[in-house]
Amino acid sequence: MKLAAFLSFFAALAMVGGAQPPAASRSAADDAKALPSPQLAGPMSLEETLVARRSVRQFTGAPLTLDQISQLCWAGQGITEPKRGLRTAPSAGALYPIELYIVTADGVDHYLPDGHKLERHVGSDLRPALKSAANDQESIGQAGTCVVITAVMERTSRKYGERAERFCYVEAGHVGQNILLQATSLNLAGVPMGAFDDDKVAAALKLPKDRRVLYLVAIGHPRK
Fold it and tell me: Most exposed among 4, 13, 64, 95, judged by the fewest C-beta atoms under 10 Å?
């Protein structure tokens, strides 16, 4: 099979529901907005992306396109093997505790890997509240989006007990790096953030009680 045909076939498969991870959020899935199909080939090699990636904290404030948001979501948690529901980032026991929330000026959306969709969570701009919960870091207010990486740790602890917390933090690191590298390949930039108040972030974004906030990744157009 020629490469172009293979990529088209694979992209179509990525949009199929596939296997669903245990206890995955399915609320309001029927009303969720389908994202553009992810691109499976880009202008930069992995090696070039690794060389180019840097933490950037100053952004223009320009919004990201839906295509860019789609690609970032897919890089973080997209389904790459629909038959078994396997994703772009490794997960202990393939239990997939990670849940992504996309914070923009338009509101907060929850990413649904199954079907590659965004589910509206809050329809107002919560970036000021998120910024306050993250030690008033200016990057959150300037970035086109902030990806909030959370985990439902019970999905992993059912099998791994006390090790689940470690596994979830490791997995969040995998997801964060995927998102940062994808941003670099899109000529965007980002900065990962660990300085925030977990409970205040959860409250600011009105997250479900079973979501633990692990990591913030601000992504935007870098200020020259």
Answer: 4
**Number of domains present in the structure of the chain:** 1
* CATH number, domain containing residue 109: 3.40.109.10
Closest Cα partner for 120 from 130, 107, 105, 132?
A: 107
Residues in the chain: 224
Coil/strand/helix, residue 40: coil
Measured over the CA atoms of residue 175, residue 177, residue 178 and residue 183, the dihedral's sign is positive
Distances (CA, A) of 34 to 66, 87, 119, 120: 10, 18, 9, 11
For residues 129 and 141, the answer to whether their CB atoms sit within 8 Å is: no
Domain containing 65 equals 55-220
Query: pTM, whole model, 2 decimals?
Result: 0.85
